[in-house]
User: Which sequence fits this backbone?
């Protein structure tokens, strides 16, 4: 086969013609001129397209001299004829009815609007997700803050109750020690108890100052003020009771005092009458001495809870056997 001659087969519609291109490499313009000469209805070249089927069965468009040279190399190597099909160029817009074109335009506009709305929705969803995460984090931090404050308040209340109970226990121990001391040494006992109470008050004041300085940065001012007021009230009451006990004369001298003999007799007769009335009503005889026995406890409870009635304080103390912390918990309960 001549290397400068390329046999071709041209097909257009139902017509097929055989021809040959001369040249090395063959000219693409010569091929277009050959097509226009063979099929006049396909002229000029801009109104048709040239395609061929390669060795893999794919349609390949011939639009340049380089593509024609590649096709010539492949087909000459296989010894085959290049079959070129001439296809008229037809605009799709010219073949479609106006109604179809209008529907396509409306559909494209709708799709564009949907795409824009989808983008906006995605942007808003991302913003809402960030806002939701921020709100959840803030709620978590708030819950943790309230939980910490609740624990701190509960701990401080427990400390206040413990200090009050310790002060009451020390008062009872001091009273028991004074009662057990010999009557011949009242001044020495009083000096020793006053020294001990002074040391205890100094230690308590140092502890209170350390606690106040340690909690100075705490935001809970109300709990700190309540604790300070309660401890000051406890200290004042304890000091007053100590002074009262220190200046109280011995029971023997009081009973032997002739000036108070009539008062003592009247008091004894009144107490006997009260005992008779309580025995007749079936009530407990201990009720008449409860206010004197628990006078300090009732005063402490009313200092902490001023709105509670004295009878309620006495009833709570009697129910819990003098346990001040348990009585306060019951009086402050729901």
Assistant:
């Amino acid at each position: 086969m001549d290397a400068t001659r390329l046999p071709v087969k041209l097909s257009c519609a139902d017509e097929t013609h055989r021809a040959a291109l001369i040249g090395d490499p063959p000219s693409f313009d010569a091929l277009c001129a050959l097509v226009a000469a063979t099929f006049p209805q396909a002229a000029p070249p801009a109104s048709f397209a040239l395609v061929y089927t390669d060795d893999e069965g794919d349609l390949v468009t011939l639009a340049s001299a380089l593509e024609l040279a590649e096709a010539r190399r492949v087909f000459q190597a296989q010894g085959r004829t290049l079959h070129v099909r001439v296809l008229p160029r037809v605009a799709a817009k010219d073949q479609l009815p106006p109604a179809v074109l209008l529907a396509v335009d409306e559909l494209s506009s709708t799709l564009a609007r949907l795409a824009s709305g989808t983008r906006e929705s995605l942007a808003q969803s991302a913003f809402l997700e960030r806002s939701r995460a921020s709100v959840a984090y803030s709620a978590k931090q708030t819950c943790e803050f309230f939980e910490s404050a609740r624990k701190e308040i509960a701990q401080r209340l427990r400390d206040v109750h413990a200090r009050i109970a310790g002060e009451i226990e020390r008062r009872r121990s001091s009273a028991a020690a004074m009662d057990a001391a010999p009557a011949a040494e009242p001044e020495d006992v009083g000096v020793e108890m006053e020294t001990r109470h002074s040391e205890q008050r100094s230690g308590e004041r140092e502890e209170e100052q350390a606690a106040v300085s340690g909690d100075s940065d705490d935001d809970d001012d109300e709990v700190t003020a309540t604790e300070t007021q309660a401890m000051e009230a406890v200290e004042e009451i304890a000091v007053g009771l100590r002074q009262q006990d220190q200046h109280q004369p011995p029971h023997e001298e009081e009973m032997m005092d002739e000036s108070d003999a009539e008062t003592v007799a009247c008091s004894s007769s009144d107490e006997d009458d009260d005992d008779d009335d309580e025995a007749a009503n079936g009530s407990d005889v201990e009720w008449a001495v409860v206010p004197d026995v628990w006078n300090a406890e009732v005063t402490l409870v009313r200092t902490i809870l001023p709105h509670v009635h004295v009878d309620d304080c006495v009833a709570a103390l009697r129910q819990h056997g003098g346990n001040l912390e348990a009585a306060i918990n019951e009086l402050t309960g729901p």
In short: The first strand starts at residue 5 and ends at 12. Residues 95-141 form one domain.
